[in-house]
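I'm stuck. Please check this protein.
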Amino acid sequence: MSDFGSTTPIHLERSDGKGLAAGTLGLWGSTVIGLASTAPVYSLVATLGFVVLAVGAQAPIAFIIAFVPMLFIAFAYRELNNEMPDCGTTFTWGTKAFGPWVGWMGGWGVAVAGMVVLANLAQIASVYFWDLFGLDLENNDWRIILVAVAFIAAMTWVSWRGVEIGERIQNILLGVQYLALGIFVVAALWQFFDGSAPGATAFDWNWLNPLAFTDFHGFTEAILLALFIYWGWDTCLALNEETKDPKRIPGRAALLTTIILLFTYVSVTIAAMMYAGLGEDGTGLGNEANADDFFLAIKDGLLGPFGWLLVVAVLISAVSSTQTTILPTARGTLAMGVYRALPAKFKDVHPVYKTPSFSTIVGGVVAICYYVGMTLISDNILQDSIASLGLAIAFYYGITGYACVWYYRRDLKNSARELWVKGIFPLLGALMLTFAFVQSAIDMWDVDYGNTVLLGIGGTFVVGIGALLVGVVLMLVWYLFPRSKPFFGGKSLNRDTPVMVPDEPGEFIRSIDGGV
């Protein structure tokens, strides 16, 4: 049958789905990869100072409030994955709920977020690498660029080589991150209680009071900052076809990941406040000079000659997330290739390693080109593109939330549980993220928001919205090609077509962590 008349992109009776390594990950492995994707150490280091500047002592409750929409969206991911455990996630679910145009843009949102954050993480990893040798280099220094490119290339190879080796590496890297955070919390509290902390501040339950915010602008700024440090947990879902129980484990891992992150962020924030205080000078968290990296400001006073451990933790956090960020991007474009939303080459899977070979390599190459190109043109524009990352994240998370509500709209009357987990929670999460998108865009429009001014408005807005609009252009270009017709015609993927996923989990026994 020709492409134009086909209702399925490939033979759906194939038990191996898209050809990925089915049955490889268990609950533990999925959770580890979800946690690693968020880069918990780096996320805290880069965000905590700015949250404190925005809301002061209410920083802990800001992280708790920001957790709420992520939890609600996690319910949407879990419910959609229970029925459609497809590695295309937002692309597949958005297409089934709203049609090919919305689904394609949802997939593009995932890809944009991945590309931009890869550039950011690689640069951060390189900066901290050279810091170990006592070198404070400019972001556009050739040594920073060289090592950053090497990190992207190395992590692309690991992702191409197989999800098994990636999961083993992530177990070690995540363990180092949490060991460093544990040492930080213990050391900070020890010095607080023995009276040697430089800004010793007693714990106050008011830090957890959601009614204690005094400035609405500061509140919204803090929530928007805190909201996106949870991003990355959805990698669990992108690996659903490689999970031992693809309908259940990925959703459970996503919920578990978000809860662990909440505990991590709040506990470390409280420990940091008790140790360093909120002062505006010295090691105080209210010191603007320390806002972008409070670890560097306190590492020597906290750990003395072992302060380098915190530097290594941030380096490992960035490198770890570089590898895991490639995973959902590559699997998203793989799914788009399978369902004919992208050229056929994107659906290639390595015959031995069972990874999306072409999609993984393309993702790494594009990230390198983007990073090097933007750095050489203007590091300020690169930094503005990183600052605009929240737009792409809110965009595709929002689509997922709305897709859950619309797809299950006929089931919401069946029971109270279905009403809440398939309707109310996802809808509230999507609405909150829509607000975050709009408010962020309004803030980014201001010429004083970022580092550049483009077209007479804030460069962060131009780069962030522009990146999404590039997706519209590419979608329209692909629409002109004959192979795209089954997809845009609603034939290769619609509400009624079966998704291309592996057989039931009982068929597979391969799981490197035992499927715990």
Remarks:
- Residues 1-15, 503-516 have pLDDT under 50 and may be disordered.
- The beta strands are 453-454, 457-458.
- The chain is about 65% helix and 0% strand.
- The longest helix spans residues 100-131.
